[in-house]
């Protein structure tokens, strides 16, 4: 599979299945406990958002989760972590099967996260920004007691503004650098990325969280890129002006979130490194996966409590993940 764009700038294919699962079922898919399965990879930052939001909101009993292996081929993600190589609920070997079940001529990306309708085995949506928004606003009947408000009404406009620039220059910015096919395209993406990281450092130097005084989805979206930065983006994607661990404010902010229940307990650094270094063979032809960095540094003191803020607002931390969903290896 080729990821580098020989013409220059990397452009993400954002043609996602826009069907929504809503409280009123207006798209034909009403919110129902036990009906749907969230399919994720722990390697993928976009899927990691959904894993974290599901944990914070306490939707484990309402929305089951299937976890693919960290690597894939041109056909799609596979369930090679399960004993017989099949998802135990959907009974399929590849996520591709759920997409083709609904759209036999589907010709776009087979991406995670994806939500599958269990009774029919058909994919419902892989629109990752909408998935997490709907988990917050449409699945409220199944939120745990004490679930945080990840999309507060009074912060929505500011969150939309911050999320837009973070997506363009950071979340997707690292890919624009890593998959650039020309020096000019790479340098343009590199400059935009670090200019935005400097902006974020200044912003987060005076407040504990990205928007408001509690964790919102804006923090979730930034975290999933930052937590992969030193392990993958710094070297593999040539985002190497500095490591995250050399940017004091962002490093402290990221560790603060990592040590917050629902964040660090979703992270599998082994899966993350295996995916990027083994799948992107045009970037890393040898497929060799680096041994470092040392994940234990993520648990060191960060001092962000001094900035105040209430991590979960008027809510409470989520309980530990179910044993069946606990990360087994994170080094």
From TrEMBL:
CDD domains: GST_C_Omega_like. PANTHER family: GLUTATHIONE S-TRANSFERASE OMEGA-LIKE 1-RELATED, GLUTATHIONYL-HYDROQUINONE REDUCTASE. Gene3D superfamilies: 1.20.1050.10, Glutaredoxin (3.40.30.10). Residues 285-331 are annotated as: Disordered. It comes from Actinoplanes couchii. This is Glutathione S-transferase. Residues 152-279 form the GST C-terminal domain.
């Amino acid at each position: 599979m080729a990821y580098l764009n020989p013409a220059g700038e990397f452009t993400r294919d954002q043609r996602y299945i826009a069907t929504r699962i809503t409280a009123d079922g207006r798209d034909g898919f009403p919110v129902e406990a036990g009906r749907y399965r969230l399919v994720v990879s722990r390697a993928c930052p976009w899927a990691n958002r959904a894993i974290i939001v599901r944990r914070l909101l306490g939707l484990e009993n309402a929305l089951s989760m299937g976890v693919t292996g960290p690597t894939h081929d041109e056909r799609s993600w596979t369930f090679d972590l399960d004993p017989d190589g099949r998802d135990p609920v959907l009974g399929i070997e590849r996520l591709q099967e759920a997409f083709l079940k609904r759209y036999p001529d589907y010709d776009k990306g087979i991406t995670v996260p994806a939500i599958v309708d269990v009774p029919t085995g058909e994919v419902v949506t892989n629109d990752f920004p909408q998935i997490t928004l709907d988990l917050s606003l449409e699945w409220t009947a199944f939120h745990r007691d004490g679930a945080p408000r990840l999309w507060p009404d009074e912060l929505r406009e500011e969150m939309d503004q911050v999320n837009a620039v973070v997506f363009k220059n950071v979340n997707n910015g690292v890919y624009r650098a890593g998959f650039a096919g020309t020096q000019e395209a790479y340098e343009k993406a590199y400059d935009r990325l670090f200019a935005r990281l400097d902006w974020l450092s200044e912003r987060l130097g005076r407040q504990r969280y990205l928007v408001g005084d509690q964790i919102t989805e804006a923090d979730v979206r930034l975290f999933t890129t930052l937590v992969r930065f030193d392990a993958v983006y710094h070297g593999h994607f040539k985002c190497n002006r500095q490591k995250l661990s050399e940017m004091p404010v962002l490093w402290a902010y990221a560790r603060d979130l990592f040590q917050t229940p629902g964040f660090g307990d979703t992270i599998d650094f082994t899966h993350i490194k295996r995916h990027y270094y083994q799948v992107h063979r045009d970037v890393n032809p040898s497929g060799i996966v680096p041994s470092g960095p040392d994940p234990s540094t993520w648990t060191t003191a960060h001092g962000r409590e001094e900035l105040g803020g209430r991590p979960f607002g008027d809510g409470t931390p989520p309980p530990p993940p179910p044993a069946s969903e606990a990360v087994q290896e994170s080094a």
